[in-house]
Amino acid sequence: MRTLKIIGMVLLGIVGFAAVTAGVGAVLMLLWNALLPALFGLPVLGFWQAVGLVVLTQIVSRLLFGARRGWGHRPHGRDLRRRWHRWMRAQRVKAER
Questions:
Q1: What is the domain extent for residue 55?
Q2: Residue 22, C-beta contacts closer than 8 angstroms, at least 6 positions apart
Q3: Contact between residue 92 and residue 62 where contact means Cβ atoms under 8 Å apart
């Protein structure tokens, strides 16, 4: 029973990843084709080219900025509170000057 649950979660993850990638690729394709050919004379982008551009952008951003800055990274719990309090202290110091 546990094995079926794990297999189901893996399949759900794969389908979800494919759906999100396809959705982002479609939005990118529509925006690119609506704006860039008219403004800058660039060629029209196909769906698979847009998906490839999304994947390439993710790879390059992870190489340049590290894996922690990829999709889905958000500070949680104490880390978020710590950042918030640090920012508030900095703002109070600026206001006192």
A1: 2-96
A2: 51
A3: no
pTM above 0.70, yes or no: no
DSSP letters for 67-87: GGGSTT----HHHHHHHHHHH
Q: Over the stretch 56-74, which tens digit does the pLDDT of each residue have? A: 988 888 777 766 544 555 5
Mean per-residue pLDDT for 23-33? 94
51 neighbors 21 (Cβ within 8 angstroms): yes
Q: How many domains does the chain have?
A: 1
- The two tokens of residue 74 are 């958000």
DSSP symbols for 54-66:
HHHHHHHHHHHH-
Q: How far is residue 6 from each of residues 9, 10, 58, measured CA to CA in Å?
A: 5, 6, 27
pLDDT at 75: 55
